Amino acid sequence: MTDMKTPLLPSSDPEPSEPGGPGGPVISIIGSGDFSRSLSTRLVACGFRVVVGSRDPRRVAGGLFPAGVELLTQREAAERAEKVVFTAVYPEHYHTLVGLREPLEGKVLVDVSNATGLNRGGRANAERLAELLPQSRVVKGFNTVSAWALQAGAHDGSRQVLICSDCSDSKSTVLQLARRLGFSPVDLGGLCASRDIEEAPLILFPSWGGPVLTTFLLFLFFYGYLFLRNILLPYLDEGRNNFYELPLVTVNQTLPAVSLVTLALVYLPGLLAAVFQLGRGTKYKRFPDWLDRWLCRRKELGLLSFLCAVLHAVYSMCLTLRRAAGYNLLNAAYRQVRAGVENSWSEQMVWRSDLYLSCGILGFGVLTLLAITSLPSVGNALNWREFTFVQSGLGYAALTLSVMHALFFGWDFAFFPGAYPYYLPPVYLLALILPCIVLLGRTFLALPCLMFRLTKIRRGWESPRHRPPNNQELPEEDPPRHPGDV
Length: 486
Fold this sequence. Notes:
8 strands, alpha/beta
C-alpha cells in the first residue's frame, strides 16, 4: 500500500536533507567559479558526492558551496573522482591541467568551456584539451546550460544539453548523467562538433536576424512615406506645421501597416511552395534556398506582426490622452456651434467606426491565440491536426479580419480625389496590396481542381514525367475529401 505521507512530486529544493549520501558516486569539478558552484549544487541535489578542486582552496570563502561538497586541491579532486571529472576552467588556464595527467588517466573529462568568439577558426577548446590529456576521454557538454538552470533544474521546461565525444562509452556516461540531472541530452556525434557547441551560446537569436531586418525595413518605408505625404510636403507647399505628429500619430499609422504586411509574409511562402509543387508535379524536389529559409522564419515573422499589433493597440488607446486631441475636440465643437449644427450624428460614420473597431478587436484576439500557440509549452500540447488548424486556419482568419479592419477604416474615402494629396495614395491602400494577393492566392488554391491535385502530390503522387519509363504505373486512389491546409 502506498504511503499517503510520501509526496507524489519531489521537492523543488535543490539541497536534499542529506546531500551527497554516502553511497553516491563521486564526481569531481576542477575549478571553483560560479559555474562550479551551480553544478555542484545540482549534483548534490541528485545524490552525487561532489569534490571541487581549486588551485588554492584557502582562498575560497566558506559557505559558497552547498553542504557536503569537499573543497580540495586540483590534484586531490582528480584523484578522488571515480569516473567523471568536470573541467570548469577557462581555456587560457588549461596548462594547469597538464600536471594532472596521471590522476586523470582513463577518466571521463567533461569540458564545459565556451568559445571566445564566433568563426575564430582553429581547434576547439575540447580538441585542445584532448591533445593536452591524451589518456583521458574528453567529452564536450553542459556549456549551453546556464548557472541558473543548473541550480533550478529542468522543472521549468526542457533544457537541452548538447554533447559530443569520440569515445562512445564516455559519451553514453555523460548522456545518462544529464538525464539524471533532469536535462534533455542531445548527441551531436564526434568531438569535431565541439566547435559548433562552443559557439552556440554566443549566437544572438540566430533565427531572428532576417525577420527583424524585414520588419525594420518595412517600418522605415511606411514611416518615411507618411512623413513625406503628411508632414514634409504640406510644410513645403502650404507652410502647415504637422511635425508634432511624428512621435505618436505617425508611429501609430505605421504600426498597423507593418503588422498587416508582416502577417501576409507569414503565409505567402506557403502559397509559393504550393505553386512550386503544382508546377513540378512532385514533392520530392527541394525548394529554392531562399524559400526554404523563408519557410523556416514564419514563426518569427508572426510574432513580430503580433508585436506591432500590440503596440498599435496601445498607441491607439493613448491617442485621446494627447493634448492635441483635446484641442482638436474643442475646435470641432466651436466650429459646430458657429455653424448652428445641433446634431452631428452620422449613421454611416457610426457603422464605419463600429465595424472597423470590431474587426480589429477580433483580428487582434485571433492573432493573440496564434502567438500563444507558438510557445513551445503550448504548441507541444497540441497534436499536428490541432496545431495546423490554429496556425493555418485561424491564421488566415486573422489575416482576413485584419484586411477587413483596414477596409472598413478606409470606407469609401479611397474613391475621392482628396484622399490622394500630391498624387500619393493613403498608406492603408499600400498595406493592403500584399495581404489581398495572399488571400486571393489562397482562394485560388482552394479550387477543387487544384486542391485535389496538390493533396495527391503531398501524399506522394508524382506526375508521369518524373517516373522512370520502365516502371509500370500503379492505379491511383481517389484523393481524400478532407485535404490538409496549404
